[in-house]
Write a structure and sequence with these properties.
Shape: globular
CATH architecture of the largest domain: Up-down Bundle
Number of helices: 20
Order of helices and strands: HHHHHHHEEEEEEEEHEEHHHHHHHHHHHH
Radius of gyration: 24 Å
Distance between the termini: 25 Å
CATH class of the largest domain: Mainly Alpha
CATH topology of the largest domain: Butyryl-CoA Dehydrogenase, subunit A, domain 3
Helix content: 55-70%
Largest sheet: 8 strands, mixed
Number of domains: 4
Number of strands: 10
């Protein structure tokens, strides 16, 4: 198991990462159960779900509960199935075939239920978890406020202890709350005495608590999204969740889980989009031949598959690490610490997955041409529903701020040897030269060398930025964005390459295809590193010797010998069209 953030500083052996090829028979059974439920119970109702027919979402949640699809993260002693984080991610990946019902499901099982699982008292767990696990109760998560979206700690909702000491009196408003119109249990945050940010469990029938009307949304129309109003709402003191003044510990750790679960959902949705695009490309003819035979269409299909492969690889690598870290952890503080360890990777999974999905639905719609803009084909729904994922669970901009900030904070505290690695970089540079393909090297040796130099480029820019700006670096958001993008692509490239190498070592019958996908991804991503580096250096240095020297280093680190990526894409597209879907 690799510590969070260490992927930038050290190498890891392929056999030490978790990949989709490591799914157990139980994992595969869970995925099949969810896929069957989505296909048989949800898909026929997609149009009706979008009308928000009264009682429909609740009844479907009850059916999901009967199948154990709400209880994967709930311990067995509270009537859960406690299937582990990999199974939970597989549920999130496959439930997306049910359209916006996946939002209802995700808000309930993730950010709605997990705060009680992780931080609830024994009494709170006994009271709420069995109902949340079987679908008798539906949960919602209430953090966002009109003036506190990404800035969660800027919340204005207040709580004050009643004179008799039995209640906290809450006043304020929450907005954009999923499941609000029919939820029974609301995980809510308020500041006690105006400064102690604290979590509460609020029941639907709480006096002084009310729910506003449905928002009219661009997509995910079948999910409920309403504001909440607290007007002297009387919440019993026993409904404080966790410690007073420590609500941020709950909020941020639960959001980390929400981020990787969202990443799992985007992987599933991207696969659906690719499948629809491949199907249409084979059916639609122009100029007397199927459009699947056109090079530009094949390019789109291949790029979709390449990006999905990287997203899927990094997601399950990270979920496997979290599952291992959580082994034998029972206390909320232990669980929270183990999840926080991978906060960087959770943000990466969210950003990479949501942007991969937006790429896939956009290209899927383009392949459909004018028909893609009509409701006759499902890609129209995919396109509308995908857009929220770059906003959910912290916007992608906020997650890009989190990645370098967390890395630098851990470096300053000595939790990651980041500063030492940056200082040692100068000594290492003399031996770093781009490997030239020779035809007899190990598979992907050249690509692993490119990955190694991408890490050095991150250290070059990160070390320079930390030295130039110190504590003021947080204000240099353009540099932060470059560092975040570098970290995201390093993790994606490495995860794709390691998965392919592991497949080759295990004589996987699809190993050659996985090597093609990983190789193509690296050649797509790596050229951008030199561009990012020179852009950052030109900002940090005035014209002169320092800029010329460091730009020369960036050029040397960013050098690569081109590969025949067009042929790779043709081969990948042929496989996608042969299968009619994403299949590795």
């Amino acid at each position: 198991m690799q510590k969070g953030g260490m992927f930038l500083l050290e190498e890891i052996e392929a056999e030490n990462i978790f990949t989709p090829e490591d799914f157990s028979d139980e994992h595969k059974m869970v995925a099949d159960t969810v896929a069957d439920f989505a296909h048989n119970e949800l898909k026929p109702l997609l149009d009706v779900l979008d009308t928000q027919k009264e009682g429909l979402a609740r009844s479907l949640m009850e059916k999901a509960g009967e199948l154990g699809l709400l209880s994967a993260d709930v311990p067995e002693e509270y009537d859960g199935t406690d299937m582990g984080k990999v199974a939970s991610a597989l549920i999130a990946e496959n439930i997306v075939a049910g359209g916006s019902f996946s939002v209802t499901h995700g808000a309930h099982t993730g950010i709605g239920t997990l705060p009680i699982v992780m931080f609830g008292t024994e009494e709170q767990k006994k009271k709420y978890l069995p109902g949340l696990a079987n679908g008798d109760l539906v949960a919602a998560y209430a953090l966002t406020e009109p003036n506190a979206g990404s800035d969660a700690l800027g919340a204005k909702t207040k709580a004050a202890l009643s004179g008799d000491g039995k209640y906290y009196i809450l006043n304020g408003e929450k907005i954009f709350i999923s499941n609000a119109s029919f939820a029974d249990v609301f995980i809510t945050y308020a500041k006690i005495d105006g400064d102690k940010f604290t979590a509460f469990i609020v029941d639907r029938d709480t006096p002084g608590f009310s729910i506003g009307g449905e928002e009219k949304k661009l997509g995910i129309k079948g999910s409920s999204t309403c504001p909440l109003v607290f007007e002297d709402a009387k919440v019993p003191v026993e409904n404080v969740l966790g410690e007073v003044g420590k609500g941020h510990v709950i909020a941020f750790n639960v959001l980390n889980i929400g981020r990787y679960k969202l990443g799992a959902g985007t992987v599933g949705s991207s696969k659906l989009a690719l499948g629809e695009a491949a199907k249409y490309a084979l059916e639609r003819s122009q100029f007397g031949i199927p459009i699947a035979k056109f090079g530009m269409i094949q390019h789109k299909l291949a790029q979709m598959a390449i990006k999905i492969y990287a997203s899927e690889s990094l997601l399950y690598r990270m979920v496997g690490e979290i599952e291992e870290a959580l082994e034998d952890k029972k206390e909320g503080s232990e669980i929270g610490k183990s999840i926080e360890e991978y906060a960087i990777e959770c943000s990466i999974a969210k950003v990479h997955g949501s942007e991969t999905l937006d790429y896939c639905v956009d290209e899927a719609l383009q392949i459909h041409g004018g028909y893609g803009f009509t409701q006759e084909y499902p890609v129209e729904r995919f396109y509308r529903d995908s857009r929220i994922n770059r906003i959910f669970e912290g916007t992608n901009e906020v997650n890009r701020l989190i990645i370098p900030a967390t890395l630098l904070r851990r470096g300053m505290k000595g939790q990651l040897p980041l500063m030492q690695a940056a200082q040692n970089l100068q000594e290492e540079l003399t031996g770093l030269r781009a490997k030239m393909p020779s035809g007899d090297e190990d598979p992907m040796e050249v690509e692993f060398d490119m990955l190694h130099r991408a890490k050095k480029l991150f250290l070059l820019i990160g070390g320079t930025a930390a030295q130039q700006y110190n504590q003021k670096l947080a204000k240099e958001q353009e540099l932060i964005q470059i560092l975040a993008d570098m970290a995201i692509e390093v993790y994606a490239m490495e995860s794709a390459l390691l998965r392919a190498r592991k497949a080759g070592s295990n004589n996987d019958h699809n190993a050659e295809f996985k090597i093609e996908l990983a190789t193509a991804y690296v050649y797509n991503a790596f050229p951008q590193f030199e561009v990012w580096a020179k852009e950052a250096l030109s900002y940090m240095y005035e014209p002169g010797d320092m800029l010329r020297t460091n730009s020369s280093i960036a050029k040397r680190l960013g050098k690569y010998y081109p590969a025949n990526v067009i042929s790779l894409r043709k081969s990948i597209a042929a496989r996608v069209l042969e299968e009619g879907k994403y299949m590795v």
